[in-house]
Amino acid sequence: MELPTLSGEGHLAEVVPSVLATLGVPGCVNTLDLPESAAACVLLIDGLGAGLLRDHAGDAPVLAELAKGTLTVGCPSTTVAGLAAIGTGLASGEHGMAGYTFEVPGCGVLNALTWRRHPDRAELDLDPREVQPLPTTFERATAAGVEAVVVAEAKFAKSPLTKAVQRGGIYRGVHAMGDVAAETLRALESSRGFCYSYHGQLDELGHRYGPGSAAWVMQLRQVDRLVESIVDGLPAGRVLAVVADHGMVALAGNVIDIDATPALRSGVRALGGDPRVRHVYTEAGAEDDVLAAWRSTLGERAWVARRDEAIAAGWFGPRVSDRVRPRFGDVVAAAREDFGMLRRTAEPVESALIGQHGSLTPAEQLVPLAIAIG
């Protein structure tokens, strides 16, 4: 089966460097041709795929009108990798936040959201700055005299993931859409500032009820009102760029339970990723057998590749550093269409979710780029 390649679209990792270039930050290039501004905000709506916005444009008329194009988010198409792309200006092959769960050599499989070992939830003594040591976009902005602000949920202010990918910014914790809008507009009052704002509830409802469900649509309408509120209050000379970290697909009955499928466990010492993309870490000398077993068992339902094949296809960006390379599976399996690779024993919560993401399909990869100018 021919592997898909990820190219031809602007990348999510280009957004913040393009914004910072308009603010005069050295070393940043405006590859997305964003408008010049005195201050700018990137608002990330977790889980809003470009296809979902197109299909529900009537429920989000402001966003639909502001949409100027689409971006590719890269592999894996997960929140962890997306936030790291925003926070470093790099794809996963360099920033190394390789998914919802991934192996850190010598430490085991890390759940990057809980910062615990997966799946047993044991505590891990991992310094976020060692897991992601590269300078963040917020640090680069601050060093250039730009006021960098993060507007996101208060409960994440001191999380290890925040320290890994958002350090250097002034963190303003928020609780609901009202203070997301208010704090974003406050940040844009700066004479030379960069603001990153985050809204995550659309993704939560998509996971629970499915993208396009009644609950999801109602939340999309509220998201559109959030965007409208910020646009209405934009000071002159300020720019708002609205993006997302991934799209989403709904799983139905087209799934396999890895934990209950011996052929998918033989020769496997650890598993990472999530139901739409799996990092398969093999026992010594077992890579060929594991690759063959996963290809045979999954068939046309997934793209199954060796790590080096996935790298050559550009799944993890144009460059993959030696530091990051072992975090991707020896074998990588990426689901096609609406297929899911569950682990009902090890991951009962994740396996029960309807909406999923992480793979290479357009529904997951393509996100909107919407622009408003004050």
From TrEMBL:
Could you identify this protein by its name? Phosphodiesterase
